[in-house]
Write a structure and sequence with these properties.
The complex is a heterodimer of chains A (340) and B (263). Chain A has 340 residues and is mostly helical. Chain A has helices at residues 3-32, 40-55, 76-98, 104-124, 126-129, 149-175, 178-188, 190-195, 200-226, 237-249, 254-271, 283-302. Chain B has 263 residues and is of the alpha/beta class. Chain B has helices at residues 54-62, 84-90, 107-112, 123-128, 130-150, 166-179, 196-211, 223-229, 247-250, 254-262, and strands at residues 14-25, 28-39, 43-47, 69-74, 77-78, 92-94, 184-188, 215-219, 233-237, 240-245. A 6-stranded mixed beta sheet of chain B has the order 6-7-8-3-9-10, sandwiched between helices. A 4-stranded antiparallel beta sheet of chain B has the order 2-1-4-5, with helices on one face. Residues 1-9 of chain B have low confidence and may be disordered. The chains are: A mainly alpha (340), B alpha/beta (263). At the A-B interface, helix 6, helix 7, helix 8 and helix 9 of A face helix 2, helix 3, helix 4, helix 5 and helix 6 of B.
């Protein structure tokens, strides 16, 4: 493989890992718990910014051409862990304000507005993260090794893959546990879940924070690789791409979410890059958004369960020798209606 | 009036005691000074014409609706300010007027979702994995299956609850409530919209539960079912209690007849 192709492939692989992490985070929130987090991309952005300013040296060290807070020059694991912490704190703050009293549809509107406000604020308040120009020259964690840049990118693929695998294991354990069942109960019917003792507000807030942490860590992994992060990378429509991926892949199924991540943000967005230019140079880019919206509509209409639907959980049969229970009244409840 | 002593206010022995409940929506006094007790054992019926405030009163007792005045005590403890899930954990569990199953959970999962004290029912417990919660899960599955068999629903355990008939959804809801090991079950028209034959079956299940010692408070419109199951009954109209006592007695109560004829 030529080195150019290798750079291309490694970039795709890192994006695939990052997008899968994001889709698992949104799947836990939206697919499993039913949270309509329309500010999702904000948490990935918060993580990317945090990891960037933790990894970057003081703003004066670069000759002062960009402004940003912190600049601690921390090495790798701390940047991504710090990103997760920032995402969690941000989710807790936003969740406490918007998740407690509002109904789900209002929540979704609030999230969308929060996302837009955040982009505007970060773009215009330059000292925070260098405004609309964004932060750049974020060090790659493997810079210190002084290896060939190609080796460095392959090492980064390994790092991203480990992060993705850990996220998948976590998401699977949560989804398939009794806790995951409680989350699905909340998704299905909040009032009924509360009536059987679930603290609905707490569960929703908890998953808002958990998803925020994972989203932020995915942002942290991404920024370490691409080395820059700016408001144009996390405009509110980007959230819709992740939603499209989870809906198309299969809500409530982590394998489905991964399939969606590979199909929508990776394959679909990448394939359109190779189309020849037709008419206005912005045309294909704009059409891409149209197609994503149409895909969401088409799937919600014709295959709402997605490509890999949520698994129906069938429990293994009782152990032989277990007491057959009393079936006195068993027959009377058949739909045809037994009389008595 | 006759039968009054059966539901006399006596906070020392009553399982549930509501005192001077008020609930106003705008200018409408949906519940207007309601006081009654539910003693341990038996099914207390809460009846009355449409718009009498029965469901609102039940909502206040369950914690879903905030009263504008009055207190609710459960087992001698003031629970007026507790949230729905906190009341459920004390053993005060409700069912709903409209069927409220978890549609995309299987019947068995609907029941398991109500289980308490499952070590895997926390984020940390989930991360620790099946080794941490598998044993408890097996135990609860067995318990849920016993319940399913008792209600004749064992053939449906892996069916999505959303695919069941209306009557079967009611049963799932009652079984799910029973999984919480309630001390008082609040039933809001458990037979509403159900085929009469199925309604009779549900009535027999409730009878069986009553005879096994479960205390229930039930809203019901069908007077023949109230007659069969409930003793005592509390009759509401226009947000107030107009009669209480044995069904046979309140049946002939002038105000009750009037309320039912007018309502």
């Amino acid at each position: 493989m030529s080195s150019g192709l290798q750079f291309y492939v490694t970039t795709l692989l890192v994006y695939a890992c990052v997008d899968m992490m994001a889709c698992w985070a949104l799947n836990l929130q939206y697919g499993v718990t039913g949270l309509l987090n329309f500010a999702f991309i904000l948490f990935q952005a918060a993580g990317a910014y945090t990891a960037a300013v933790l990894a970057l040296p003081l703003q004066t060290a670069n000759g002062g051409f960009q402004q940003y807070i912190l600049g601690l020059g921390l090495p790798f694991p701390w940047t991504v862990l710090g990103a997760g912490l920032a995402g969690g704190v941000l989710a807790l703050a936003i969740g406490l304000i918007s998740l407690r009293k509002l109904r789900t549809d209002y929540e979704a509107v609030v999230m969308l507005v929060v996302s837009i406000i955040a982009t505007t604020a970060v773009s215009n308040f330059v000292p925070l993260f260098n405004g609309s120009a964004g932060v750049s020259l974020v060090p790659n964690p493997f810079d210190g090794l002084n290896v060939d840049p190609l080796v460095e990118t392959w090492l980064y693929v390994g790092l991203a893959a480990v992060a993705a695998l850990l996220t998948f294991a976590f998401a699977q354990r949560v989804t398939n546990s009794p806790f995951g069942r409680s989350l699905r109960a909340v998704r299905e019917n909040e009032a009924a879940a509360a009536a059987v003792g679930k603290n609905v507000a707490r569960l929703r807030l908890l998953m808002f924070v958990v998803g925020g942490v994972i989203a932020a860590m995915s942002g942290g992994v991404l920024v370490g690789f691409i080395g820059l992060w700016a408001p144009s990378a996390w405009l509110y429509p980007e959230t819709l791409v992740i939603f499209a991926a989870v809906i198309i892949g299969g809500r409530g199924n982590n394998v489905g979410a991964a399939v969606g991540a590979l199909l929508v943000p990776v394959a679909f967005n990448e394939a359109t890059r190779f189309l020849p230019q037709v008419g206005n140079p912005a045309l294909i880019d704009a059409l891409q958004w149209v197609v994503i919206a149409l895909l969401i509509l088409a799937f919600l209409w014709f295959r709402p369960q997605g490509i890999v639907p949520e698994r129906r959980r069938v429990f293994p049969a009782a152990r032989p020798g277990a007491n057959p229970a009393d079936r006195r009244v068993a027959e009377s409840m058949a739909p045809s209606g037994g009389s008595r | 009036m006759a039968g009054e002593e059966l539901v006399a206010r006596d906070p020392t022995t009553a399982l549930l005691s509501v005192h001077d409940l008020h609930c106003a929506f705008g200018g409408l006094n949906a519940v207007d000074g309601v006081s009654f007790d539910v003693q341990t054992g038996g099914i207390t019926g809460l009846i009355g014409p449409n718009g009498a405030g029965k469901t609102t009163a039940l909502g206040i007792i369950a914690g879903a609706t905030a009263p504008t005045g009055g207190t609710v005590s459960f087992d001698g403890r003031d629970i007026t300010r507790l949230a729905v899930h906190e009341r459920a954990r004390l053993g005060l569990t409700r069912t709903f007027q409209l069927s409220s199953e978890f549609p995309r959970l299987t019947v068995l999962e609907n029941l398991l979702a109500a289980e308490r004290d499952q070590p895997g029912d926390s984020l940390w417990g989930a991360v620790l994995g099946r080794r941490h919660w598998g044993a408890a899960e097996r135990e609860y599955v067995e318990r849920a299956r016993d319940l399913l068999a008792r209600f004749g629903m064992d053939g449906k355990e892996s069916e999505y609850a959303g695919n069941l008939s209306g009557g079967q959804k009611r049963l799932v809801e009652i079984m799910r409530a029973l999984m919480t090991r309630p001390r008082l079950l609040l039933l809001d028209e458990p037979m509403a919209g159900v085929h009469p034959n199925l309604a009779q079956s549900i009535a027999s299940y409730l009878e069986e539960l009553r005879d096994n010692g479960l205390t229930m408070l039930m809203i019901e419109h069908e007077l023949s079912i109230v007659d069969r199951l409930c003793d005592p009954v509390v009759v509401m109209a226009q947000g107030r209690i107009i009669a209480r006592g044995r069904m046979a007695e309140v049946r002939h109560h002038e105000q009750v007849l009037e309320a039912y004829l007018v309502g």
